[in-house]
Specification:
Elements (H helix, E strand, L loop, with lengths): L1 H5 L5 E7 L6 H11 L35 H11 L4 E11 L9 E10 L3 E2 L3 E14 L2 E15 L26 H8 L4 E5 L5 E2 L14 E5 L3 E10 L11 E8 L4 E7 L11 E11 L2 E9 L13
């Protein structure tokens, strides 16, 4: 089986692909608004596109692209037939060779770069497939985008019985590192701390080691007042995760201070969450086998518009 899979390495996934639109200011503006990126390099007559938009200019939408090779579909069909019917995107890597500017015409070629031997993961056993896309602007090399998926055979669900674990599954703890340790220390003390750049004074969330606007590494913090609104949200139905009971809402909260934070919503049903809904910060205690810890969440409904502890 692996010999057959390896034979796909080096075969094209797309030839002579062309971006549906040239690089343009409108798409750059939408991207920067979604990412809360106000860097001046992305505005004005000499604007460049954010480098991480590299893939955006190659996306074909629902209608796809001309020049697609059947090799990728043949590879996935072979994996499906072997029982590797599930798929999950695992990661991507990008290399930037030159800035992209409004008016640049984008073309690209894609190749199946590698297929891994069979790997065993928590999701199940399968093969990692890496596709490399070489992007050109006006015929010049502009960057490379590698996209990796895992095609796997899902593990059989437990039918219960003597081997079934007792008790509710533990909720995963946040990953704490040197860049965000101060944020989680504040949460433990029931304080939502926002980073403030020591160079230009810009507030930022989530925490990062340097300012995206001026590059200064110095910073201090300000404490959030606790008020905000729902800027956007999703309702999770699938895939189910043992520690959570779908459906449930996860929201992008626009804090009153002008930054945004992804957090859970309480106080209303998942189908009652709305964009623009006022919310109020709360701290939720979570207990697992290692002890108790805190999470910031936001309450909608009665009391959401007033300060903590008051009913609206």
């Amino acid at each position: 089986m692996y010999v057959r899979l390896k034979a796909f390495e080096g075969r094209p996934a797309a030839r002579g692909g062309r971006g549906k639109d040239p690089v343009n200011a409108a798409m750059i503006r939408h991207w920067c608004e979604a990412m809360s990126d106000a860097h001046p390099a992305y505005r004005g007559p000499d604007a460049v596109a954010p480098p991480t938009m590299l893939q955006a200019w190659t996306m074909g939408g629902l209608s796809g692209h001309e020049g697609r090779s059947p090799a990728y579909e043949e590879l996935t069909a072979l994996l499906d037939a072997a029982g590797y019917t599930a798929v999950v995107a695992t990661d991507c890597e990008q290399e930037y060779l030159r800035p992209l500017r409004p008016g640049d015409e984008i073309t690209f070629d894609a190749v199946i770069e590698s297929v891994s031997p069979r790997k065993t993961t928590k999701l199940g056993s399968g093969h990692f497939v890496t596709t490399r896309m070489d992007v050109h602007a006006n015929g010049e090399p502009a960057g490379t985008h590698r996209f990796r998926i895992l095609k796997y055979a899902p593990k059989a669900k437990s039918s219960g019985g003597a081997g079934k674990a007792k008790g509710a599954p533990a909720r995963p703890r946040p990953v704490i590192n040197r860049d965000n340790a101060g944020f989680w220390a504040g949460v433990a003390a029931h304080r939502l701390l926002i980073q403030r750049c020591g160079g230009c004074g810009r507030l930022r969330m989530p925490w990062s080691p340097g300012c995206a606007r001026c590059g200064a590494p110095e910073w201090d913090t300000v404490e959030a007042s606790g008020g905000g609104t729902v800027h956007s949200y999703v309702v999770l139905h699938h895939p189910p995760f043992p520690a959570f009971g779908p459906p449930y809402a996860v929201a992008l909260i626009a804090l009153d201070e002008g930054v945004r934070l992804v957090a859970g919503i309480t106080g209303v049903r998942h189908d009652e969450v709305r964009i623009g809904m006022p919310v109020r910060l709360e701290f939720q205690q979570v207990t697992d086998g290692e002890g108790a810890w805190e999470l910031p969440v936001f309450r909608a409904g009665p009391g959401a518009a007033g300060p903590p502890g008051e009913e609206g």
